[in-house]
């Protein structure tokens, strides 16, 4: 199997009903909006997807439903965030059974593995499956840095094909590209570095606010890739206050509020998360309101040459 690890890939939110059950109707509305905007893949089960609160059966349902919705047009990628190697291998097996076309992998959860343990964890999982894999490198949130030397060791696994780069060090994109060339695709995982990362050679953008603003996110990326920097920058400057909602412990609540404002989501989260209240809610609501009021008219970004 292969995936073109390029373009905008939303880390989609999981939709819940008022009864705390999966809301597949609203989930379908959001996925269709993503596809219509021109995203290159759907990523399930990340932080935004509230994966740590989902049951195994709910994850199965979401994978199967997404595979059905995309109709083979774009890949469906499931995040693996497990505590054990055995658990990661099992998650990869289930992903394939459910029709997923790729995996995004975090280092082991909870236990802070050393470099050798982390590399072995990735290798053993990769060797257990033929699904393409993107390594998620986010030492700020998850405590383990996947270094270039570690990536070098992982190159023996042909199905490890990409890196989600979330170190916040934008020069790391250049380091990876210089070291590995076309062997590894690099996708930025930080919304507030989306345009900058694209201009530095990132192949794609694993995005958060795309959940509420899919067309605007795709437009920034496609315009930048086409060299129409001025137009991309104009949209990006409008977008930045909204994108900053992604770099917060309450990013799920923030982005779900934005999804409600654009009519492609609900605000329901799963406890212990709760909807925002008080001054925090007022602040986020004001940012979203301003963004909606000044939402730019987009050029025909789907047909750029």
Short descriptors:
305 residues; alpha/beta; TIM Barrel; eight-stranded parallel beta sheet; 11% strand; DapA-like; N-acetylneuraminate lyase activity; Aldolase_TIM; 4-hydroxy-tetrahydrodipicolinate synthase
Work out the strand percent: 5-15%
Q: Name the poorly predicted regions.
A: none
- The ordered string of helix (H) and strand (E) elements is EHEHEHEHEHHEHEHEHHHH
State the CATH class.
Answer: Alpha Beta
Q: How many E strands?
A: 8
Cα-based radius of gyration, to the nearest Å: 18 Å
Active site: 136 (proton donor/acceptor), 164 (schiff-base intermediate with substrate)
Keywords: Lyase
Protein name: 4-hydroxy-tetrahydrodipicolinate synthase
GO molecular function, one term: N-acetylneuraminate lyase activity
């Amino acid at each position: 199997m292969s995936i073109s690890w390029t373009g905008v890939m939303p880390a989609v939110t999981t939709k819940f009903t008022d009864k705390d059950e999966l809301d597949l109707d609203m989930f379908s509305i959001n996925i269709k909006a993503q596809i219509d905007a021109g995203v290159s893949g759907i990523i399930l089960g990340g932080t935004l997807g509230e994966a740590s609160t989902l049951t195994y059966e709910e994850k199965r349902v979401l994978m199967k439903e997404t595979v059905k919705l995309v109709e083979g047009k774009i890949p469906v990628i499931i995040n693996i965030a497990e505590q054990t190697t055995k658990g990661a291998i099992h998650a990869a097996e289930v992903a394939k059974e459910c029709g997923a076309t790729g995996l995004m992998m975090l280092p082991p959860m909870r236990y802070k593995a050393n470099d050798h343990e982390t590399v072995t964890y990735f290798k053993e999982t990769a060797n257990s499956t033929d699904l393409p894999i993107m390594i998620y490198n986010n030492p700020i949130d998850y405590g383990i840095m996947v270094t270039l030397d570690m990536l070098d060791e992982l190159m023996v696994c042909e199905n490890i094909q990409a890196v989600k780069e979330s170190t916040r060090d934008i020069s790391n994109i250049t380091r990876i590209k210089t070291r590995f060339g076309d062997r590894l695709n690099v996708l930025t995982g930080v919304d507030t570095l989306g345009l900058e990362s694209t201009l530095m050679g990132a192949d794609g953008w694993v995005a958060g606010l795309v959940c509420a603003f899919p067309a605007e996110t795709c437009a920034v990326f496609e315009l930048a890739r086409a060299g129409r920097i001025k137009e991309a920058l104009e949209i990006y400057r409008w977008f930045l206050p909204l994108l900053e909602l992604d770099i917060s412990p309450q990013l799920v609540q923030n982005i779900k509020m934005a999804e409600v404002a654009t009519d492609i989501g609900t605000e329901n989260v799963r406890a212990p998360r709760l909807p925002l209240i008080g001054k925090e809610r007022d602040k986020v609501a004001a940012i979203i309101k301003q963004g909606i009021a000044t939402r730019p008219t987009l050029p025909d970004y789907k047909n750029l040459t």
